[in-house]
Amino acid sequence: MTDTLEMPEKLTHAAADAAAERTLGIILISASAIAFALTGVLTKSIHADPLTITCWRGFFGSILISLYVFWRRRRSSGRESLRLGWRGWLLAVEGAAVSIAFISAFKYTYVANVAVIYATSPFIAALLAFLLVREKCRLQTMVAAPVSFCGVAIMVGGGLGSGHLFGDGLALLMTTGSALYMIMVRAFRDSPVVWAGAVSAFLLFVLGWFVTDPLAV
Q: Which residues contact 38 (CB under 8 A, 6 or more apart)?
């Protein structure tokens, strides 16, 4: 009898926790959108090559993310593992490649083009989720996706011959890579994805240090 009474209470707590996590997710996505909106403007204003920018972006990013990871690990008394494994390293390398395409796209096309193309990432992620992890698409997503892609096609088509097609292609590559990254984060639940982000940023710093001259800035 006691177990029967406790069951609805457990379900209520689980539903409340799920709702709280969803709210937190919406807040984090909104905050990241604001930061993303500033990235293009700042990248355009820096007179340096994309690898130099990603090098310093990776340097400071790796420090900030690492500080957060160690702070959170300290709060959990060191119970969170930092072992990446092949899944974590795959996330780190894929994330680094996406970051390079991301910054480079701003250098070769309009900021608005990159932003609009990136806006299709939820639909590409939904398609990849269906193909890779068999996650069903909602009807609203299926209806909105063709409209969004038509808008991108019109925008990119208008840039033919304008010299911005390469940048638009990088933006599309970055968008597809970002969508794949979302699926990987969902699929690799046991991997320390935030720590993988720190390693990914550090890889950008190492790559930039050996390929370009970051001290030139």
A: none
